[in-house]
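Quick start: what a row looks like.
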Amino acid sequence: MANAGRFLAVVAVVCLVSGMVEAAETDYRLNPGDDLQITVWKEDGLDRETIVLPDGTIDFPLIGTIMARGRTTAEVRDAIKQGLASTIPDASVTVAVRQPLGNVVSVIGQVQKPGELSAGHRLSVMQALSMAGGLTPYAAEGKITILRRNSDGTEKSIPFPYDEIMRGRQLESDIVLSPGDVVVVPASSLF
């Protein structure tokens, strides 16, 4: 009986995690550079792979230009269905992200693997640092910053209290990174 209870608990956790992963994937917002696969059932001429252009749009036959930046795949799918409604009523459209090439953040400085990170979902700062292999022994844990370019072109610097988060404090400071953000991990002045 105890094993059955443990089994049910494991199943509940797996279902919860699966739901969270699914929710994270459906919440993904498209960015310029993302590689999309668009399929219209029984319309081979409309099946195509396309890249979200730098201005955030995609071009699609019979419709023209569609804004994709900031939208989910479901929202783009609905826009395509609406655009096709006059020529293909009740079109069955699928939009999938082949590669999230527009969701890129950079991690530089005192991490094991500095460089660009591309993910199919938004990353928190701690997730990005983890994907970069973690900090080196020379990192200034209390001086990590995030550089973010605002929509008006100005840049702002956001301090990141890594040392406090590692102590279980200021957990709300583990913000979700936006595409184009740069996480800067400077070297400690002791080395």
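That is the whole record. The longest helix spans residues 2-26. Helices lie at 2-26, 73-84, 125-131, 162-166.
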